[in-house]
Amino acid sequence: MNLNEFLERVERSQDFTKWKKDNPKSYLCSFFRILEENDDWQIDFYNPKSDTMTSFLAGDTVKVIDKDSKIFKHKDTEVEELRLKDVKFELETAMARVDEINNEKAIKRIIILQKINKNTTWNLTFITAAFSILNVKIDAGSGEILEQSIKPIIGYKED
User: Which residue pairs, CB below 8 angstroms and at least 24 apart, start in 135-139?
Assistant: First the structure.
């Protein structure tokens, strides 16, 4: 099932329809998934009025899993709207690009599709068997690797 199908499943659900009626200015901001855990996508919608996010889990059924959550971002950072029509470079191809630059076995793969700095971006984070964190950001429109880093888990801290 492709991302559009997951989004349509959410948008057709009773939970979403009810929520959207109360949050008409909210918009799609990200897709999130941990590959080793299940095939479900978490689909997130941002409410600019309240600066909150509501998440729906699109699995066999659709359910709200997190409603009106405060988000962690810099005060001046804008949460950009994600438009699936801008995704030309599918997840499988993005994962293959990561495999080209990474020779360590991934034990956990965290996938986020979001808009960062005007780019629709696959934000891929792999925890490797060597206890490193590999993060690769790939432009979902062009396939260009925008950023990549690998850091050991031990002693890891954000720059």
Answer: 136/97, 136/98, 136/101, 136/102, 138/89, 138/94, 138/97, 138/98, 139/89
Identify the top-confidence range among 38-42, 76-80, 83-87, 94-98. 83-87
Is the pLDDT at 144 greater than 70? The verdict is: yes
Angle at 51 between CA 48 and CA 52, to 5 degrees: 110
Residue 7's SS3 state is helix
Separation of alpha carbons 111 and 106, rounded Å:
13
The candidate with the shortest Cα–Cα distance to 64, out of 114, 109, 13, is 13
- For range 79-108, the mean pLDDT: 90
* Reported pTM: 0.89
Would you state the structure tokens that stand for residue 6, as one six-digit string?
């997951």
CB 120 within 8 A of CB 143: no
Distance of CA 144 to the CA centre of its chain: 18
Block residue for tokens 């405060």: 70
Examine the pLDDT at 156 and tell me if it is beyond 70: no
